[in-house]
Amino acid sequence: MIISYQGAQSFKVQFGDTIVAFDPISKKSSFRANNFGADIALISINHPDMNGVDQVNRGDKQAFIIRNPGEYEIQGVFVKGLPSTSFYGVDSDEEENGRINTIYIVNLENMNLCFLGALGSTELPKETKAKIDGVDILFVPIGGKGTLDPAKAYKFAVSLEPSIIIPMNYDDKSLKAFIKEAGEESIKPMEKLTIKKKDLEGKGGDVVILSEQ
């Protein structure tokens, strides 16, 4: 499996000939949008920074789009969408309880990927919390602004007991704060993460920083 970071909280995950896109960036976003063909695209909230379905269709690659909680199986890939709360992009005129954010659990190559999306609260519904188990790779937002701040993000990430933690949706300040919380100030960004199940042995909450592609 090869994981690359596309900016904001967008990731491209490739295994064999199959590509899964997490929160692709729209052309309407202030972030730079990358175009690449995907088989499956997972959207956590309906916001231009995360709903760029127009960016994941290329040639023969026409992505199957998942936007909501539920259980799905596409091309042998098992996806579980779980409801949670986000305050990303919520203004004063919107409901103070936030908007629905979908957390995705994806099983690929015998590894469980947990993508927290634009999670803004660690107070999860009981059913959601019960279904987050056996996480191998966790993607966690750390930039605040409606998502978790660095301190809450790290504490919550560790509580889920993943093997690897990948932060997303951050700027330099929030990233520095996050790696300080983790005690990983010397960590160096990687261009991409190439990993197999056996590589997870002995890992427990290891932080991996991926540089934007």
Descriptive notes:
The chain has a single domain, classed as Ribonuclease Z/Hydroxyacylglutathione hydrolase-like (Metallo-beta-lactamase, Chain A, 4-Layer Sandwich). By secondary structure, it is mostly beta strands. The relative contact order is 0.16. The two termini are 17 Å apart. Strand 10 (137-141), helix 2 and strand 11 (164-168) form a beta-alpha-beta unit. A seven-stranded mixed beta sheet has the order 6-7-8-9-10-11-13. Helix 2 (150-159) crosses helix 3 (172-181). It has helices spanning 126-131, 150-159, 172-181; strands at residues 2-7, 10-15, 18-22, 40-42, 64-66, 70-74, 77-86, 99-108, 111-115, 137-141, 164-168, 193-194, 206-207. The mean pLDDT is 92. The chain is globular and about 45 Å long.
User: What is the straight-line distance between the termini?
Assistant: 17 Å
Which spans of ≥5 residues are poorly predicted at pLDDT below 50?
none
CATH architecture descriptor? 4-Layer Sandwich
The CATH homologous superfamily name equals: Ribonuclease Z/Hydroxyacylglutathione hydrolase-like
Overall average residue pLDDT: 92
CATH topology, which one?
Metallo-beta-lactamase, Chain A
Count of helix runs: 3
Q: Reading side by side through the largest sheet, how are the strands ordered?
A: 6-7-8-9-10-11-13
C-alpha-based Rg, rounded: 16 Å
Overall helicity: 10-25%
Number of strands: 13
How much beta, percentage-wise? 25-35%
